[in-house]
Amino acid sequence: MLPDGHERAWVAVIVALHVATGAAAGAASQSRVAALLLGPILHLAADRVPHQDFRSRRFEIGSGLACLVLLAARRGPLDPATLGAGASSAPDLEHVLPFLRPGGRMLFHGRRGWHRSGRFPADLQLLLAGVILAALTVRRR
To answer: CA 95 from chain center: how many Å?
Structure first.
């Protein structure tokens, strides 16, 4: 487990993987509008996959932000990949921003949410996110 492993698990599929899959969908669509629309759908679909989570809120936030910053720096903030990454990871903001919970209820992660715990290891999710992001950010010669 990573630093702060004593904190309670709080997220769905790790944020970095939400960022990476949203970025991949945005890049594939080559459309800003499609990227923004696909992001939340991908978030929900990924949360349906039975998976493990990291327990560190600090690591989740930091890794997700680092991935978004990398995409924005390499592809531009308005690139479909960057927008898809932001849109796909945005539903996790309801974990940390109370004003995103109408009536105190989470829309994406509430009692009847889509999150499923299972065997897909968090470490493997992080590796997969890294591979996807490397493919989308490494400049080709």
So the answer is: 13
What is the C-alpha to C-alpha distance for residues 7 and 58, in angstroms, rounded to an integer? 9
| 113 confidence band (pLDDT: 50, 70, 90) | low
Residues across the chain = 141
**Average pLDDT rounded to a whole number, residues 118-126:** 86
Round to whole Å and give the CA distance between 25 and 35. 6
47 token code pair:
């949360």
> The tokens of 70 are what?
């990398």
Task: List the structure tokens of 125.
Answer: 């999710």
Structure tokens at 101: 């919970």
Q: How many helices (H) and strands (E) does the chain have?
A: 5, 0
**Residue 84 in tokens:** 């898809």
